[in-house]
Design brief:
Blueprint lengths: L5 H11 L18 H8 L4 E5 L2 E5 L4 H20 L5 E8 L1 H5 L14 H25 L3 E8 L3 H6 L16 H14 L4 E5 L6 H6 L4 E5 L8 H9 L3 E7 L13 H10 L6 H4 E5 L8 H17 L6
Parallel strand pairs: 3-4, 4-5, 5-6, 6-7, 7-8
Antiparallel strand pairs: 1-2
Helix pairs in contact: 1-3, 2-3, 5-7
């Protein structure tokens, strides 16, 4: 979400999203509030700080780790304040292990993704940190049915060998798909909450995420092609929910009268019952709203609710 005021962000989210509110992230506050910094702050017995080149692992926690954890605590305080008496689904989100490994450098300077042992350590550390985080959310909001969103925008690049080295002159070797799947499966199985994986990039590995145990996959619907139909169809038939990003996350883009038309067309191509749309698809913005104005972010959430309700209507 845009802005730096945690209370205002939570107030907006809880007010607009009556069925599935979430814990906002406010990257505008600076390093430690961004998705990578927050993820680094969740790690257990691994620490990272900001260097001129970006986030880098360190031997001990520094001010960046303390700042990330302090901001998360501030956000949780606001969430607790505005969800008194809440019962039902409540979403929290964190960066996934592969995007984190592709974004944080080792002490010697290369990205952690280049070191398979480091990738394994990150996945294990993140799993333990997320278990503690979910327990803290449940303590603060006892009626919550917590859902965890893993943000993996770099996963397609990781699998395709398209992640640049720290120098930027070369590309890191592609991660084997089976290894990537096993790491995600181990993390998902270690958590006592449904996990959805968000990837707002082209060529989302839907089948891999489904096999890894994701209860839902979150996609930017504008980036899908008919080549993705089979993977989506198999996922839906297997019980995986689709979080369809159809509301533009930037106010400069137009919002059509029927924002879910792309979802309806997909459903027709797959031959699914139109009446199942509202049960199998959750409508969302296409990606995060941190780059939008506060007014548009509020409108995008409201439009998502309106569009979701329209899925229950019989299409013309």
């Amino acid at each position: 979400m845009p802005g730096t005021d945690a209370r205002e962000a939570v107030r907006t989210v809880v007010g607009e999203l009556e069925v599935l509110p979430h814990l906002p992230e406010l990257p505008e506050r600076g390093p430690g509030a961004d998705v990578i910094g927050r993820g680094a702050g969740l790690l257990v017995e691994l620490y990272a700080g900001v260097e001129p080149s970006g986030w880098r692992f360190a031997d001990r926690p520094g001010r960046d780790t303390r700042r990330a954890r302090a901001w998360l605590g501030e956000d949780l305080d606001a969430l607790e304040e505005f969800t008194q008496g809440w019962t039902g689904p409540l979403k929290v989100q964190a960066v996934g292990p592969w995007t984190l490994a592709a974004s944080v450098e080792l002490p010697r300077g290369e990205k952690a993704l280049a070191d398979r042992g480091a990738c394994r350590d990150i996945a294990g550390s993140l799993a333990e940190g997320l278990r503690r985080h979910l327990a803290e959310v449940r303590r603060r909001v006892p009626g919550a049915e917590v859902v965890l969103q893993l943000d993996e925008p770099l996963l397609p690049a990781v699998l395709a060998g398209q992640v640049p080295t720290a120098s930027g002159f070369q590309r890191l070797r592609a991660v084997d798909r089976q290894l990537a799947e096993e790491a995600l499966r181990g993390l998902v199985r270690s958590l006592d909450a449904p996990v959805l994986v968000h990837c707002c990039a082209p060529q989302v590995p839907i089948g891999l995420l489904r096999r890894a145990g994701a209860a839902a996959v979150s996609l930017d619907m504008a980036l899908l092609t008919e080549r993705d139909d089979d993977a989506i169809g198999e996922a839906v038939e297997g019980g995986t929910l689709i979080f369809g990003g159809v509301i533009p996350s930037t106010q400069g883009l137009s919002v059509g009268a029927d924002s879910v038309a792309v979802v309806r067309r997909l459903w027709r191509r797959l031959g699914f019952d139109p009446e199942s749309l509202a049960r199998r698809v959750v409508v969302t913005p296409s990606c995060g709203l941190a780059g939008a104005s506060p007014a548009y972010a509020r409108r995008a959430l409201s439009l998502s609710v309106t569009a979701a309700r329209s899925l229950a209507d019989t299409p013309e």
